[in-house]
Amino acid sequence: GQQVMQIPQYQHVQEGEDFTTYCNSSTTLSNIQWYKQRPGGHPVFLIQLVKSGEVKKQKRLTFQFGEAKKNSSLHITATQTTDVGTYFCAGRTGANNLFFGTGTRLTVIP
Amino acid sequence: DAGVTQSPTHLIKTRGQQVTLRCSPKSGHDTVSWYQQALGQGPQFIFQYYEEEERQRGNFPDRFSGHQFPNYSSELNVNALLLGDSALYLCASSLDGLPWEQFFGPGTRLTVL
Predict the structure, then answer these.
(1) Fewer Cβ in 10 A, N or C end of chain B?
(2) What pLDDT digit, counting tens, does each position of A63-75 carry?
(3) Helix (H, G, I), strand (E, B) or coil at B2
(4) pLDDT given for residue B20 in this prediction
(5) Which of B53, B4, B58, B59 is nearest to B29 (CA)?
(6) In angstroms, rounded to a whole number, what is the distance separating the alpha carbons of residues A6 and A9?
């Protein structure tokens, strides 16, 4: 079955440092989404990538979709304490349901 | 404009019991998906309802069933509860044709003792 893996599982950074999480799928994806879940909260949709090699930016966040549409990354520049949470990628093949990745829990040390 | 709402917030049950969780979608949304999120894991898709029918289903046993009402709200039922069913149950709503714009509710934390 389809699997979506994320690395690293945990990441501790000093405030101001950059952060990157990587997402890899065992199958080619039609699109990939990224979510942020704060501690005790629910996943909040951040963005969707559809095209091969697509790059999208949201302020300090940069999202990339691999050329083969099997991997993706989220990069945060100059982290802030408000960036704390778990970041999930979620991939979809065709019209099928979303497969969430294992998540990367980000801790930002002030 | 209310977002996705779920009830109850927390629930404690014992093994073998049955539970019903409820979800009201975001205004204007007609599709409801249910996810199970175990502690420290990503959400896992249970099933999706559209036009009062189950449209897609993940890898969950028949003990998990659902329903969607004419007003688009939905219920998730779990029979014969197991300890492993303890998790955060998330409901997400979207509009058919725009599946990527999916909004999650706050979830129901189910503990099975």
Answers:
(1) N
(2) 999 999 999 999 9
(3) coil
(4) 98
(5) B4
(6) 7
Q: Is the pLDDT of residue A19 over 70?
A: yes
Nearest beta carbon to residue A97 from set B58, B90, B106: B58
The whole-number pLDDT of residue B1 equals 59
Residues of B in contact with A33 (CB under 8 A): 100, 102
Is B92 exposed, middle or buried (CB count within 10 Å of its CB: 0-12, 13-18, 19+)?
buried
For the beta carbon of residue A86, count every other beta carbon within 10 angstroms: 22
Which tokens in the block code for residue A72? 């993706």
Residue closest to A28 by CA, chosen among A77, A81, A80, A72: A72
pLDDT tens profile A35-56? 999 998 999 999 999 999 999 9
Question: What's the CA angle centered on A51, arms B26 and A28, to 5 degrees?
Answer: 90
Identify which of A31, A42, A88 has the shortest CB distance to residue B100: A31
CA–CA dist B34, B66 (Å, integer): 9
Q: Is B63 a residue whose pLDDT tops 80?
A: yes
